[in-house]
Amino acid sequence: MLELKEIEKRYGKFYLHNISFKISKTKILSIIGPSGSGKSTIIKIIMGIIKPDKGTLLFDNRDISSFPPEVRNFGYIPQSIGLFPHLNVKRNIEFPLKIRKIKKNIRDTAVLEIMKDFDLMDLSERYPANLSGGEKQKVALARAIIFNPDIILMDEPMNSIDFQKREKYLNFIKKTNKKYGTPIIYVTHNLEEAVAISDEMVAIKRGEIIKHGTLNDFMREPDDVWIASFFRHKNIISGYLKNRELKVNNSDLIIKTSLEGEGEKDIMIRGDEIIISKKRISSSALNCFKGRIKDVIPNLYNTELIIDVGGIEFRVLITEKSYKSLDLSVASSVYLSFKANSVKNLRGDFIQ
Predict the structure, then answer these.
(1) 248 and 105: one domain?
(2) What does each C-alpha distance from 278 to 131, 136, 297 come to in angstroms?
(3) Number of domains into which the chain is organized
């Protein structure tokens, strides 16, 4: 439906380059990344506010790269939310229809219907200064969708909403997406928002896409050190790889992998792919190390163990039932095992 092909934009030392991805109908795609990575620039290029130096923007296979914003049928919610302070809620929502010269009776009907749908009837005469952050968000979304846009672009829209209320409004956005079937591109630097709302994600760092995929793709195969840290993977280990064995830095530990090549590497092992036992077990896992539990951290759905193995900390996730049945506690000696193909190669670095 919407496709970006090799988009480039340069601002001084900042260089947005080779930005290519698609979003199809009814999807919510999040663009995630640290501040200054180029997320908002991408949104403004899609909207037509910024013209790229190179590349093509296609909508339904039609080149819209040179179209001005008013010709692109896209809804846009900027970081500031962008409500007109001199217009009340009803007039703010009506505005896109008015500038499109829609007849007044049709405008009135459409505004009434969407205010009912968004539960805004009691706020119709209020002005933005008298709305909460969540109420402003709902008004902005109503205004963005009332003219039946082909896509909605949302740039860090939760900045004005209290942390405790964000889940409610993220669910409201998802509900709106499903009801109206309008695809949404959602920019955020917040992990919880991205996980809660996305069908797909594009991760960008230093002006370059480093991964595009589903939530499961990001969780199972993060590929990049920054993505792994963004998704709070704990077992990120550095060392020297040779003959598919990683000699861990500052340790005698050697981890067997299925990775090719030779040289300095950062690797990751998911905490839920490590098996814990009181005795060494016979299995197909090539890696089996003895360690001692340093700490036990109960979580909502599992228990996290911090295990010291030769000066290297491993974080392991097990069920509460398994933790109790193994009769574990701080200072318990345990064996941890994991397969060579559980060791994932990471490129990049932690630097934003």
Answers:
(1) no
(2) 58, 55, 19
(3) 2
Encoding tokens for residue 181? Answer: 């079937």
Range(s) of the domain holding residue 258: 228-346
DSSP state of 127: -
The pLDDT, as a whole number, for residue 352 is 47
**What does residue 337 show for φ and ψ, rounded to 5 degrees?**
-130, 145
Contact yes or no for 93/76 (Cβ under 8 A): no
**Domain identity same for 153 and 12:** yes
Q: Which long-range contacts (CB under 8 A, 24 or more apart) does 18-26 make?
A: 18/208, 18/209, 19/55, 19/204, 19/208, 19/209, 20/209, 21/202, 21/209, 21/212, 23/151, 23/183, 23/185, 23/200, 24/183, 25/1, 25/181, 25/183, 26/177, 26/178, 26/181, 26/182, 26/183
In this prediction, the residues of the chain whose per-residue pLDDT falls under 50 are 352
What is this structure's pTM?
Answer: 0.84
Q: Hey, what are 331's tokens?
A: 């200072």
Contact 33, 203 (CB under 8 A): yes
Separation CA 69–CA 44 (nearest Å):
9
State how far the Cα of 79 lies from the Cα of 187, in Å rounded to an integer.
Answer: 9
